[in-house]
Fold each of these.
Amino acid sequence: MLIIFDLDDTLIDTSGSLTPHLLERALKKMVDGGLQVKNFSTALYILKTLDKKTASSEETLKLFLAYTRADVKLLEIGLKEMNELPPQIQVKPIMGAIALLQELRKSHQLVLVTAGSVIFQKAKWENAGIDSKVFSKIAIATNGVKKIYYEQILREFHAKPAETIVIGDRVKKDLKPAKDLGCLTIHMKWGRGRLAEGTSGVIDYAISNLNEIQEILMRKL
Ligand SMILES: [Mg+2]
């Protein structure tokens, strides 16, 4: 089987171990840049609460700045903080991720397709202790759109879509394009992906523990 993994909130716990720190840093920088907040802790609480309901940190910051009637130029300052790994932060792998990748690579081809900036994505997987050598290929969709990468990978690996599994937390961004190509999909219910939107016909399997992938593979083979 060809198994294509997403990174954030699939192999690494971005929403749990990283996002809260980034939101705090973004808020601090925006305050330094002139954002007026009565109480920093309350503002941070609002920011974190908003972030649980939005599709991206950009949307969170936009909503927050609109809510506080702040200057929109602060968005750029905040967004810059959301896309850099602070040196003292430890990104945690999702439970079981490292061992699972080592195990799966013995009998499958593994590929990583992740959306974001090259430097930031690489910094996160390295920090979390994910060994990039387990992947036969790594593709970073800097524009956030994964379908073209899935197509390229299917061609490159001469893989049949029906024998290709795509695993990710985002139904629309990770799984819908994979399902459109005929791949099998596993929804990792983690982080933002817990709020599964428009799931009908897109998800073949849903898991909340990565080790369930082994059971799914066993049933497929
Ligand atoms: Mg993700």
Amino acid sequence: MATEVYEQLLGLQDLDVRITQLVHRHAHHPARDAVAEVEATIAELDQSMVAVNETKLELDGRQKVLDDEVATIEKRRSEIDAKLYDGSVTATKDLLALQDEAAMLKERQDGVEDVEIEIMELLEPVLAQLDASAVTKADLESQLEARNADLEQELSAVDAELADTKAQRAAAAEPIPADLMATYDELRNTLGGVAVARLTGKTCDGCHMSLSAVAYDRMKKEPDDAVVHCDQCGRILIR
Ligand SMILES: [Zn+2]
């Protein structure tokens, strides 16, 4: 009769151990590592593309300056063309000066356009790298999405089991007397979650030590319903 409550206590402890395991599993689920792994790869990729992005911005900037210069030259060249052919300039000296300026501008424009071609050639591998990295990143992001979905599913399974185990625990705690429950809770807190241990022969299954002869004799004299503690570790012993 008295041993029944101790068996119930042992059953309660099994549930408490299971709850602790489930809480730990929730916090350290391997699916979390799988998510973190992809996140780290994405961060590495982003980091590796910083310099490439900077190069692209720098080349874009240089190209913009050259484009603006070409636009300015072209504007001036069409103004000159207009003046040369609209009859507004008649003096030979002035016409020659305009022709000289037009020739100089044409030369300058050719030079600028050569540099623009060089920049485009520099941009080509940079753009290819950016495209490749965008493809890789999209792939990683879809992997991340899948792994997050997997994690969510795994965690909700753990949550469901945890809720179920907690309900079982509440039911299992009901028949246990309050004072025994208080002792149990206190011991669980101080003894790493294991408050109750079976006595096998003279050995406590909690600490795997043998009871002293004195403690063993004293225990033998205790009534069946008395709470007996291991004299080595202090756990409640199930006789
Ligand atoms: Zn012990």
Amino acid sequence: MNSEGHVLIVDDDSALCEMLEDGLSVKGFEVSTATSGQKGFEIASSSNVDVIVSDLNMEGMSGLELSEAVASVKEVPVIVLTGEASIQSAIEALRLGVYDFLLKPVKLDVLVLALRRAVEKRRLRAEVEQLRNAVAESTQFEAIVGESHPMKELVSLVARVAPADVSVLVTGESGTGKELVARALHQRSPRVEGPFIAINCAAMPASLLESELFGHVQGAFTDAKAAKDGLFVQADGGTLFLDEIGDMPMEMQAKLLRALQEQRVRPVGGSEERQFNVRVVAATNKDLDEAVEEGTFREDLFYRINVVRVPTPPLRARGRDILLLAQHFIERAATRANRNIRGISPAAAEKLVTYDWPGNVRELENCIERGVALAQGDQITIDDLPERVRAFESVAVEPDDLGGTLLTVQELERRHIIRVLEAVDGNKTRAAEVLGFDRRTLYRKLERYGIDA
Ligand SMILES: Nc1ncnc2c1ncn2[C@@H]1O[C@H](COP(=O)(O)OP(=O)(O)OP(=O)(O)O)[C@@H](O)[C@H]1O
Ligand SMILES: [Mg+2]
């Protein structure tokens, strides 16, 4: 039914209720009626009402009380009808959040106009709310794309670790999605309503890093014109993401450890400590175990941040995910650039799958953005890929040559000679021809490698 909206009429005068019900039904509204505030409240809270028209003075619950009660459970505009023409009561009603105020006897047309306005406003508000939620969702819960085995493992590990309030160390090559994982951990944690704050520990010298993390008091150093909270305090109740922690200077590592142990920081130049409640997620593309052995990363700090380790797999180990991600980035880039690019040509797809992606997902993302900008038809073709991707040839290594370990040239030669001999049924003259040796050389090699032909 294409109704103008659902109106609830609340008035202790049942004759008036009936009259308004008839009039408004004719105008296309769906109408419910109630002859007391309490009854009206029950209907409003249990059914989908767009707008309420209520008498002001009623036995029991008055129109204003009804308006207040409804406002506490849902957002429905209330139009108050009253026979009392006092400006005072009108002001009071509007102050209490009543949507509109009309005098009895009300003309049907006037009421219809007021109702239409209220219904329209409510629909708009619902629409805006919906849009806002959709945008918030798409920016907050940025999808972790991937269906390969290593990615399924990653996603399940994230889901298990996120709710636990433990420190997490995210490791992996550059561009594998470590920050994305850190955000996912925050979003799936009980701290989701709190802040997520990220800082790159490699990007600044120790002194600046200290004042960023711990804050500083006014005048602590030349540029400290005003006091500033550090990121630990700013992230209170939320998650602090320490990116590139492997590059944190040694002197800062000691201070960080102390802060984490005591859950307190002393701002630079200050004497009073500040408390914080923060979950730390750190990330690194360095081998921290090795850094600990080499003495460039504190072992005690390592144990503190490495309670659970979440490794992000390199893109080249994710198989068909490369194409899934490519499609994901194509759709995003095409929408942004307002271009009608739908996909990728089969030949270009093959190149993407073959390439080894040293820059991982970030490199793929850049490659696709460039491709979307260059593509002339509705597909990304080989010509739209960067030279290094187009020119890449995979080094085919036969599995039995590798056998899981790296071989010496001699060992490779030995195996190759055996294989050739087998292929020519032990005919040494044929074998020497195939191998490009003279017979004498072949005999020498058979002897040296102990091959019994
Ligand atoms: N599985 C994924 N699904 C969708 N997008 C991804 C995925 N992994 C990474 N990305 C995107 O790739 C880009 C690089 O990811 P991110 O910044 O998280 O990598 P990183 O590991 O922190 O890299 P670096 O070590 O260089 O800082 C980001 O734009 C991120 O949104
Ligand atoms: Mg990063």
